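Board notes (copied after class):
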Amino acid sequence: MLKLITALSRAQRGYIFLAIDLALIPAALLFTFAVQALPQPALESLRQSLAILPYLLLIAAGLSKGLGLPNIQLKAYERHAIGLTALYVLGLTLTLAGLTWVAGPRLLPGTYVIFGIVYFLVVVATRMVLLQVVTAIYRRAQPRRRVLIYGAGTTGTQLAQALSAHDSIDPIAFVDDNVSLQGMLLAGLPVHPPSRIARLVRDRQINRVLLAMPSLSQPKQAQIARRLQKMGLEVQVLPSFAQLIGEEALIDKLTPLAPQSFLGRKAADTDLGGASGSYTDRVVLVSGAGGSIGSELCRQIVNCRPTRLVLYELSEFALYTVHQELEQITEGMEVELVPVLGSVTDPRQVRKVLADFGVQVVLHAAAYKHVPLVEANPLPGLANNVFGTRTLAREAAAVGVERFILISSDKAVRPTNVMGASKRLAELVVQDLATRHSGTIFTMVRFGNVLGSSGSVVPLFQEQVSRGGPVTVTDPRVKRYFMTIREAVQLVLKAGAIAEGGEVFVLDMGKLVPILHLARQVIESAGYSVRDAANPEGDIEIEIIGLRPGEKLEEELTLSPDLIGTRYQKIFCAREDRLSEIEVAGVLRGLRQALAAGDEAAARAVICRWVEGYAPDNAGVLRS
């Protein structure tokens, strides 16, 4: 039935409405004659009127088309449409009076009044019944999403009214802090206090909350959203009315806060379970704590309740931001936050921080990770990613840190860029230290792109869409692995907990995602269409700009196909060759000499010799 309805064109639907309205005319006449005290039966009166009925139907069709009644959508049949219907019925009643005056049969004056009232009520009721039937068909055929509206003010009530006729969304209730509104019915929905959210979610199977409080400050909205997300709810925020005034539908203005919808698979979102014990009551240091991965590591480690969390960060602004956020999260918790502004390449500062704060677990996320920028600045990239890792890892071993976990990248596998090569060299350094320091467990976790991280492709695409395009894709054949920040960090912490020393852990990233497909998803999720040869009237164009220096068409996760399963389903251990202590020393000596001389060619020569699969032919300067 749904396929039949959706297959109808607008003109075909208009003809159906017109046919229904015309068919109701003889029915209304019959009912009118039946309720009148006439000398003959109602059917006999209708038979006597058959001579004028064709003319009445013809004029009715003209009136209806002229007023545009058949073109009014069922869901738009409201006050204005009912007024047009009343005008149409009045014209039809006068026409009936004129036809019976000229051609007969003569009727009592009250008959015309009754006919007009009956026909008006029947037409309006028919539209209402059709709306309910069609809505029920759509709702039965499509999955429904049950939502809670946070905010029962003007914005919330108008949102509820807009959603009431939506094909796939069911508004269940309001939540509002205003005590005077609690217990009331607004737009047909009850208003509850925020304290009842958990119960409503459980009892009414709600899976999404819509924040409809645009006048509330952004920090307060973020606090509410964070609280709701901790309950496992998906949160969306409604913009202000100034943003809503436009041609787009109200529903299309909802802005998702999380990028999971672009993942193409179900995110692995389970709690840490027994793995949290490796961080509970420990002193944990996170390097690069202000970055996308580092800040999420801090958030999840805080939930493990360490005694102290050291935030090690080079960027003052990033450190300030993450520290402010974590202070709110840890309020009331016995977790000491220690913000440290510094570089992992400074051995004296690293040694002092590790010793003074009694660090027991290090999660090393600090790195230069943007491929084109490191390609254009290879020496700073190698200094930070390779020697920064060596400095932090060596000093960790010297002070007796229990665990050292390196956050690596799929770009380290047979890299075609300096950033990937630097991460591979960092892995080799950590593997070498693992063989020589039994007191510290050294390990590394390798995974692919993270959705929503700074500089990642989804925020870039969204920014380009907000500017009206074009959305730039380097090559239509490019594919990448993707994870959400949350699931990547969960798996990193689990892998670090089960490490015994020297492992290269690889995360199950699912299937490779075509970047061209991802670009289309981002455009369409914003309510726009892609402009291409098949749709020249589309909104936003996808522009192919060519591969950037050092970029591969497809990334790999391992150097060897041999993977060993672990106790966790999405974590594997890779069997890979490592360099000897003498070879690692030779690598570091060659890089140190290249850095001291400022010789990029010499640095690339070291990479070519020791990093498997590195192809400098694709290296070059950053394109403008």
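Comment from the instructor: The CA atoms of residues 318 and 324 lie 10 Å apart. Confidence is low (pLDDT under 50) at residues 247-254, 617-624.
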